[in-house]
Amino acid sequence: DAMVIQNPRYQVTQFGKPVTLSCSQTLNHNVMYWYQQKSSQAPKLLFHYYDKDFNNEADTPDNFQSRRPNTSFCFLDIRSPGLGDAAMYLCATSREGTDYEQYFGPGTRLTVT
Amino acid sequence: GEDVEQSLFLSVREGDSSVINCTYTDSSSTYLYWYKQEPGAGLQLLTYIFSNMDMKQDQRLTVLLNKKDKHLSLRIADTQTGDSAIYFCAEFAGGYNKLIFGAGTRLAVHP
Q1: Residues in chain A within 8 Å Cβ distance of B30
Q2: B46 touches chain A (CB under 8 A)
Q3: What is the mean pLDDT of residues A17-33?
Q4: Res. B87: pLDDT tops 80
Q5: CA-wise closest residue to B53 among B74, B70, B67, B71
Q6: Residue A85, number of CB atoms within 10 A of its CB
Q7: Would you place residue A88 in the very low, low, confident or very high pLDDT band (cuts 50, 70, 90)?
Q8: Which of A72, A93, B18, B92 could form a disulfide with B31 if both were Cys (CB 3.0 to 4.6 A apart)?
Q9: Which residues of A touch B (CB under 8 A)?
Q10: Is pLDDT of B1 > 80?
Q11: B45-75 residue pLDDT tens
């Protein structure tokens, strides 16, 4: 089945220790998104890629970076995680032209100790 | 700016209908969505409606859109315990090319 996969599902990192979250997709969609969802809050878009074009949301902290080495994979790098970065991180994909139809992965829950 | 609001909690008896409400502010929204999130899981797209429609029905789900009042609702008929989850309303803010989510409504179904 075509899908959006996120690894790991649960990640624990230490305060200030860089961490990378991974997303892969078999849908061959050219648009990939990263959302942050804090406890009991709405998911919030951090950034997205149209193919290799990176689009950062204005209020996304510099601490958050992303890489997309190819169509299938996208990574979220948090350079120096703080306690406030503990959240669920959701990856989504869509096909250009049908951006309104986004498919979400199961998410990675990040804990910062 | 864009904003989506929904009530935080709804409790219903098994077998009854559930109605979850949402309001949005962006009149240029072209699509409006309902997503379901079970504990520890990602977002599952339940249904979406194009802004020129008033109603969409899909099995037990009925979506009503009042574009004048910018009000969206999701009705779940014959609610089951498996429907217990958080339901997120979202709009596709075409001007910003992104989904804007509400904070979610937690639906609790009791016997």
Answers
A1: 100
A2: no
A3: 95
A4: yes
A5: B67
A6: 20
A7: very high
A8: B92
A9: 4, 6, 33, 40-45, 48, 57, 90, 92, 99-107, 109
A10: no
A11: 999 999 888 999 999 999 999 999 999 999 9
Contact B35, B43 (CB under 8 A): yes
Verify whether the Cβ–Cβ distance B99 to A103 is below 8 Å: no
Instruction: Check: CB of residue B32 under 8 Å from CB of residue B99.
Output: no
Q: What does the longest C-alpha to C-alpha distance in chain B come to?
A: 44
**pLDDT at residue B92, rounded to an integer:** 86
Locate the chain A residue with the closest alpha carbon to B3: A42
Mark yes or no for CB contact A104/B42 under 8 Å.
Answer: yes
Q: Pick the closest to residue A92 from A78, A110, A106 (CA basis).
A: A106
Phi and psi torsions of B81, nearest 5°: -60, -30
B43/A43 touch (CB, cutoff 8 Å), yes or no: yes
Q: What is the pLDDT of residue A80?
A: 96
Q: Given a cut of 70, is residue B95 above it in pLDDT?
A: no
Cβ of B92: how many Cβ atoms within 10 Å? 24
Burial class, B29, CB count within 10 angstroms (exposed 0-12 / middle 13-18 / buried 19+): buried
- Strands of B4-6's sheet in order across: B4-6, B18-24, B71-76, B61-66, B55-58
- Which chain B residues contact residue A6 at CB under 8 A? 42
Q: Which amino acid is at A79?
A: R
pLDDT band for position A65 (cuts 50, 70, 90): very high
Tell whether B92 lies on the interface with A, counting CB pairs under 8 A: yes
